[in-house]
């Protein structure tokens, strides 16, 4: 009985460690990136954002829109597929795309007090 409990505890601990670890392949996108979001619909303009990817998680390191700092977060999978959310004051945007070894790109859409915007984004490794 004690042996079974110890085996179950060890199995649960190993599962928790394996499931919480980021995929090893996502690490190839780790580092600093320079992103540009360009508006193709609406009036949001041209927005520069600094990114850091760590263990498949995407974080903003710099950038502002309408005098508000941009708080961007998201995930990139081991195959390079990415999903991101960005907030700048009362404005919010969502993006999807794909990262490669040295460059990335995709689309985004957002909304704020003055209406809707959408466009494309691209990024290059710093």
Can you tell me about this structure?
This protein is of the alpha+beta class and 126 residues long. It has a single domain, classed as Beta Barrel (Lipocalin), CATH 2.40.128. The protein has one helix spanning 2-20; strands at residues 31-41, 46-54, 57-62, 64-65, 68-69, 71-76, 81-88, 91-99, 103-112, 115-125. It has an eight-stranded antiparallel beta barrel with strand order 1-2-3-6-7-8-9-10. Strands 4-5 form a two-stranded antiparallel sheet. The chain is globular. Keywords: Signal. Residues 1-26 form the signal peptide.
What's the helix and strand layout?
Blueprint: H1 2-20, E1 31-41, E2 46-54, E3 57-62, E4 64-65, E5 68-69, E6 71-76, E7 81-88, E8 91-99, E9 103-112, E10 115-125
Antiparallel strand pairs: 1-2, 1-10, 2-3, 3-6, 4-5, 6-7, 7-8, 8-9, 9-10
């Amino acid at each position: 009985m004690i042996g079974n409990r110890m085996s179950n505890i060890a199995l649960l601990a190993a599962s928790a460690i394996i499931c919480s670890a980021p995929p090893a392949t996502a690490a190839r996108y780790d580092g600093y990136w320079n992103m540009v979001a360009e508006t193709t619909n609406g009036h949001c303009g041209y927005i520069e954002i600094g990114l850091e990817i760590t263990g498949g998680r995407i974080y903003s390191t710099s950038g502002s829109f309408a005098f508000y700092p941009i708080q961007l977060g998201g995930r990139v999978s081991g195959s390079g597929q990415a999903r991101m959310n960005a907030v700048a004051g009362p404005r919010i945007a969502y993006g999807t795309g794909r990262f490669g070894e040295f460059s990335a790109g995709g689309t985004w859409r957002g909304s704020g007090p003055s209406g809707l915007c959408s466009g494309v984004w691209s990024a290059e490794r710093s």
